[in-house]
Every structure is written in structure tokens, then in C-alpha cells.
Amino acid sequence: MSSATSPALCAQDLTQFTGSQIFYRHALSGGCVYSEGVQYLAEAGAAYWLLDAILCPQPHHPVLRAAEFQVWTLTVHEDRSASLTCTDGDDQQLYHHPIPWTDFPLDSVTLWFADRTLYLPSEH
Question: Is pTM, for the whole model, over 0.85?
Fold first, then answer.
């Protein structure tokens, strides 16, 4: 697929991020930050909405506030709807957000959240 609208993001691109030296503050999350890899994901995948969906509930949702570690998985379905699910890392679901439609370029992506920081698993 070669056109001007081809997705700029590939899953392999995300594996290049290992440890982050720069963090970006998310203005609507009560002081949460995100890593260089997550910034790249948001920019290349046109997915700043995904950061909002994960970080905005953090200060307001009691279960999320209480969780020391969170695993967030976005799964895009064939009809272009998606599911954003948060677990505690041991498959205990903490939060679920259905997304009616998305143009996110990957079939799925997983992000980790701990210590008020959102990052790619490879950046741990």
C-alpha cells in the first residue's frame, strides 16, 4: 500500500525505544507524564486521542488511582471499532472503554502505566 495516506506507524518502530530520557507532561491528567516512545506512537499513529483515553481517567477513577501498575491494551477489530482495556498485569480488568471507530494503524498496541508515567513495555 503506497499512498500519501499510508500509516506512518509500524509495530517494529516501537521496539527501538528502550528507556526514555525525555518525558512529556499530559495537561489533562493531573500531572501524569509519558515517554519518548509513547510520544512517537501518538505522533506517527495520529493517536493523541489514545493518550487522552488512558491518562484523563487516572486522577478521577478510584480503581485506577489505587493500581500501582496498569497494562493498557488497544485492540482494533475488523469493523474498525476498538476496545481499550486496562488490567493490573495479572489479567484482573480494571477499566474498559469501547471505541466505536478508529483509524489507528496497528491491530493492537500495549502500553504500561506506573508511577504516573505511561510508557512502552520496551522502555521499562
Answer: yes
